[in-house]
Design a protein that fits this description.
There is one protein chain. The chain is an alpha/beta fold. The protein folds into 2 domains: 159 residues, 3-Layer(aba) Sandwich (Rossmann fold); 206 residues, Dehydroquinate synthase-like - alpha domain (Dehydroquinate synthase-like, alpha domain, Up-down Bundle), CATH 1.20.1090.10. 51% of the residues lie in helices and 12% in strands. A hairpin with a 4-residue loop joins strand 8 and strand 9. The radius of gyration is 20 Å and the shape is globular. The chain binds nicotinamide-adenine-dinucleotide and fe (ii) ion. The site of nicotinamide-adenine-dinucleotide has 31 residues, from helix 2, helix 4, strand 8, helix 6 and helix 10.
Length: 378
């Protein structure tokens, strides 16, 4: 049984300037990014690369339509390397741009197993969440299916993942919060995955420790302190990416895709909706085993960060919900526009489209249980 695979090489630079010099960025390179990430940091280098701004092709998280439009734009360039500088949205689109062997997005989903890499891919994450720089999956909203779905291919692994915390300086607090919660969910879902190994667990635990340490500082002080810990969050999200890249996320991610697809709730925010409720159901259904270990880890982290006492009687899962609420107040699904009539189709869509993730759940969840969790979050 595989224990751990870490791809690609992970590097760090203090500045984009240092990275651009080392990689000799220029002709043959295309940077996929957002204008507001490019202008303050990258523009000063006067690079001879092609530059594509993702937001010109559609707002929000990636869709099949947006990605196909960018694939069309790419034909203007004779690109040998693609440098993705952005959050999970940019990174996931870039992963599709380097693929060969499919004619359009639907065809690529059908031929996932045989896709090949046609260009070099360098990924620089500018949020501290997805860990997409070290995974071989891109998640697109398949507009005809009405849900988000992962496209998985070894051809999507980056050639280099480069961590440059300078980019996090412009990250709005809310994106920091939702993306780092996403990273925490990756670490926890990977830890509870029945296929977790000692190796993947080690990356999960380190990521959990680093993120909760920062969250306790936010709870004790103020939201602004996150910037002092930006480098740690960037490393933690990469580590959580390594963990879930090896065994996958579970029910929280599976449930998040329906609301993400229909109501365009950002990925980290939609995971946040179901994170604590799913953990509570796991606790009710099967406390003990790895969940108990996880609860010990969570409580130790929150106690050492001063958020609770080491002997606090409350369940670690309840305490985790309270800590997350300090980082970002939790919302109900109806605040995003979800109505009662969505519950049944959401549960159906989760069961129909997300078996890849549901099979990784700590305890199997039935369609009725999934529906009950959606109902409790309405
Ligand atoms: N492939 C994977 O392994 C994986 C894992 C988890 C999530 N995802 C996907 O990633 C996407 C979410 O990614 P995300 O949470 O990083 O958010 P995002 O990429 O959608 O970014 C959120 C917003 O923040 C802006 N932004 C990003 N970096 C910035 C910076 N440094 N300064 C200012 N603004 C900045 C973006 O332009 C965007 O408006 C979803 O589509 C999700 O499905 C993929
Ligand atoms: Fe995620």
């Amino acid at each position: 049984m595989k224990q751990i695979l870490i791809k690609p090489e992970i590097q760090s630079y203090d500045t984009f300037k240092a990275f651009a010099a080392e990689y000799e960025l220029g002709e043959g390179d295309v940077i996929l990014t957002n204008e507001y990430i490019y202008s303050p940091i990258m523009a000063a280098e006067n690079l001879k690369c092609g530059v594509i701004y993702q937001e010109k092709y559609g707002m929000g998280e990636p869709t099949d339509v947006m990605t196909e439009a960018i694939l069309e734009e790419m034909k203007k360039y004779n690109a040998k390397r693609i440098i993705a500088v952005g959050g999970g949205t940019i990174i996931d689109i870039a992963k599709v741009l380097v693929l060969e062997g499919g004619d359009g997005i639907d065809d690529m989903y059908d031929k996932m197993a045989s896709l090949k890499k046609g260009k070099e891919l360098i990924i620089i994450p500018t949020t501290c969440g997805t860990g997409s720089e070290v995974t071989n999956i891109a998640v697109l909203n398949r507009t005809k299916l009405g849900t988000k779905q992962g496209m998985v291919s070894t051809a999507m692994f980056a050639d280099k993942a480069v961590l440059i915390s300078e980019f996090l300086g412009s990250l709005p607090y809310k994106v920091f919060a939702t993306s780092s919660i996403d990273a925490l969910v990756h670490a926890v879902e990977s830890y509870l995955n029945p296929d977790a190994t000692v190796f993947s667990g080690m990356y999960s635990v380190k990521a959990i420790e680093m993120i909760l340490k920062g969250y306790c500082r936010i709870a004790a002080d103020s939201p602004e302190v996150w910037k002092e810990d930006a480098k740690d969050y960037l490393i933690a999200s990469c580590m959580a990416g390594i963990a879930f890249s090896n065994n996958g996320c579970g029910a929280v991610h599976a449930m998040a895709y329906a609301i993400g697809g229909k109501y365009h709730v950002p990925h980290g925010e939609s995971n946040y909706q179901y994170f604590v409720p799913v953990l509570k159901v796991y606790e009710e259904k099967e406390s003990g085993g790895r969940l108990e270990e996880l609860k010990d880890i969570l409580k130790k982290c929150m106690a050492s960060g001063g958020f609770c006492g080491a002997e606090d009687d409350k369940s670690a899962i309840v305490l985790l919900g309270e800590l997350l609420d300090k980082v970002l107040p939790a919302k109900k699904m109806r605040e995003y526009g979800v109505v009662q009539e969505d519950i049944e189709p959401f549960a159906q869509s989760t069961v129909d489209n997300q078996q890849r993730l549901l099979k990784n759940s700590y305890v199997p969840l039935s369609q009725e249980e999934i529906k009950a969790i959606y109902q409790s979050c309405l």
